[in-house]
Task: inverse folding
């Protein structure tokens, strides 16, 4: 799987999450929306991987995570993330919604409101988390 695959998978997961929302399947919508962010961050990590470079084992191990903040660190976006949170209150609000997601959400129930809030926080045009990730 390469960077383009991960970018495409991020788009597909977001599209699937929206479709599930429309069907009233909020648990699945919430779960897949979070994976859209995870795939986008992993695409950033893949972008930094050089061809023919032997990868650092620790970085590889850390990349195989579902922890979004850890993936931001591995992608080398921690400073940019901190600055965006500090300078954009709407982004900060969206990030707070997104950071609550985890792969463990598949074992929890989610309301229409929580799933909708996550989708908005992820995909809002100017202040959304995926919008910010795509800049990098």
Result:
């Amino acid at each position: 799987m390469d960077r383009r695959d991960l970018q495409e998978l991020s788009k597909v997961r977001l599209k699937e999450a929206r479709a599930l929302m429309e069907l009233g399947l909020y648990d699945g919508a919430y779960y897949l929306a979070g994976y859209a962010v995870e795939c986008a961050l992993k695409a950033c990590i893949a972008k930094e991987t050089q061809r023919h470079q032997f990868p650092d084992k620790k970085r590889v191990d850390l990349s195989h995570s579902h922890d979004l903040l850890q993936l931001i660190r591995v992608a080398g976006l921690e400073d940019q993330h901190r600055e965006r949170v500090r300078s954009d209150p709407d982004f900060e609000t969206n990030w707070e919604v997104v950071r609550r997601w985890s792969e463990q959400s598949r074992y929890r129930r989610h309301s229409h409101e929580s799933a909708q809030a996550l989708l908005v926080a992820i995909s809002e045009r100017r202040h959304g988390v995926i919008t910010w990730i795509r800049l990098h």
Notes: The chain is about 70% helix and 0% strand.
